[in-house]
Amino acid sequence: MEYTLAACPIFRDHLNITGLGMLAVMIGLLAVGAGRARGEVLSLTEAERLAFADDPRIAGFGANAMALDAKSIADGELPDPELRLGIMNWPIQTFDRAKEPMNKIEVGLRQVFPRGRTWSLRTQRTASLAEVERRRGRAEAAKLLLAVRLDWLELFHLEQVLEIVLESRSVFQQIIQITESLYGVGRQNQQDVLRARLELRLLEDRELDINRRVEQARARLAKWIGPAASRRPMPPTMPVLPTPAPADDILAGLAAHPEVAISDAELEARHAGVDLANEAYKPEWSLDLAYGYRGDDISSRDRSDLFSVMVMVDLPLFTERRQDQRLSAAKHKAAQAMFQRDDRLRELRRMLDEQYAAWRRLGERENLYEQAVIEEADNTFEASLRAYQNDVTDFTAVMRDELTKFKSLLELHHIRIDRAMAHAKLLYLQR
User: Fold this and answer.
1) Which residues touch 418 (CB under 8 Å, ≥6 apart)?
2) How many C-beta atoms lie closer than 10 Å to residue 386's C-beta?
3) What backbone torsions phi and psi does residue 145 show, to the nearest 5 degrees?
4) pLDDT band at residue 157, thresholds of 50, 70 and 90?
């Protein structure tokens, strides 16, 4: 389907050209496309490519995921062992090691073994957090694609509205010359001339306003593709988007949507946190190995060196205000992640119902306008124009019927752009 006429939602209430201005714009429609700026156009596909080429947010999620992947490896390792070096029972009066039988030089090594499956669960939790970041990156990519499409569509229609107005200015001046000529021979009154001039001034004002809005739309699109690309000319027609899947198929796939997938990974990380809190009820063990060198005594008798082995274990006996509370907090966080997942899924379902209904009903309205309303508006205007030429009706009636025709065209293309935007949102939902 081609979108070659001016229609944009933000102009529905602002582009209110009346009278001869409407007639001039209608005539200007015939010249749309002939004066389009030549050059490398900014197609929707090209805008999407540029947006994904260097998006810092998606790259940031990827970097954070890699950082968490590296951290998950470290979280699964035992704590570093502790080395002890010391002198024990050294005499401080004589500083003669041989006179004291209990002194020794000791070298020890201590290794802590975390509670239960703590180390593997820490790895699992950190890996889940890394997956959260990766899924956030995919969700951000889906949002980026939708944002680029919506901003491109807005700029596309604003550019067409601006082109129509520019093409209509010369036609407008010709209409003024015609009304002045008819007024000069007494076939029209001065009011028609003044009204034609007023409509030209209003059209010039609309041109200034549209220019402002075009620049704003380009600035919004430049956020995704850069200022240079956003200034490229738009194509004469809009490409056809892929047909959305049936509503039931999209609904069935919402559980795998990137937004819901984030919650799934967050929930997995929270469950690992609950398992970690449960491990806090288990003891933590440590092993201490020590070797003590003693040497000969004062009589040059050999003293045996000493070897020590110690096993230490903490006793998590009083859990009410520590382990119990941490477990309760972990469970509440897991519940919060589940509620967040349900909320995201419910919001996506609401969006699906809303956008699918809009896409379907707007399609019905588009068919109605294309098959009946526009043709009837054309016929009514032509009949009114013939009556005016035969002095059967006045200029006001002609302009009223022309205004109805022009508003019908604007409404048709307003429907088309609304449907295209709903279409883009459905494609976002069926990812």
Assistant:
1) 9, 358, 362
2) 12
3) -60, -45
4) confident
CB 429 within 8 A of CB 348: yes
- State which H helix or E strand residue 9 sits in: none
More confident residue, 31 or 273: 273
Closest to 341 (Cα-Cα) out of 427, 256, 216, 225: 256
Residue 39 tokens read as 């050059």
With tokens 């010249």, the residue in question is 31
More confident residue, 174 or 159: 159
Task: Supply the pLDDT for residue 261.
Answer: 93
- What is the DSSP-derived secondary structure letter of residue 189? -
Reported for 218-226, long-range contacts at CB under 8 A and 24+ positions apart, including other chains, are 218/155, 220/151, 220/154, 220/155, 221/47, 221/148, 221/151, 221/152, 221/155, 224/47, 224/50, 224/51, 224/55, 224/144, 224/147, 224/148, 224/151, 225/42, 225/47, 225/50, 225/51, 225/148, 226/50
The DSSP letter of residue 296 is B
Residue 410: its pLDDT value, please?
A: 73
Which residue, among 4, 9, 1, has the nearest Cα to 417 in the 3D structure?
9
Distance in angstroms (rounded) separating the CA atoms of residues 360 and 244: 11
- Per-residue pLDDT of 322-376, as tens digits, reads 888 989 999 999 999 999 999 999 999 999 999 999 999 999 999 998 899 989 9
Range with the largest mean pLDDT of 43-47, 162-166, 202-206, 379-383: 43-47
Owner of token pair 């951290």:
71
Q: Give the number of other CB atoms < 10 A from CB of residue 189.
A: 14
- 3-state SS class at 330: helix
Alpha-carbon distance of 149 to 160, in angstroms, equals 17
- The pTM assigned to this predicted structure is 0.75
User: Is residue 417 within 8 Å of residue 231, measured between CB atoms?
Assistant: no
Return all residues near 221 (Cβ < 8 A) that are at least 6 apart: 47, 148, 151, 152, 155, 230
Q: Which of 119, 75, 72, 79 is nearest to 282 (CA)?
A: 119
In the chain, what are the domains? 9-78+114-281+316-429 (1.20.1600.10)
pLDDT greater than 80 at residue 186? no
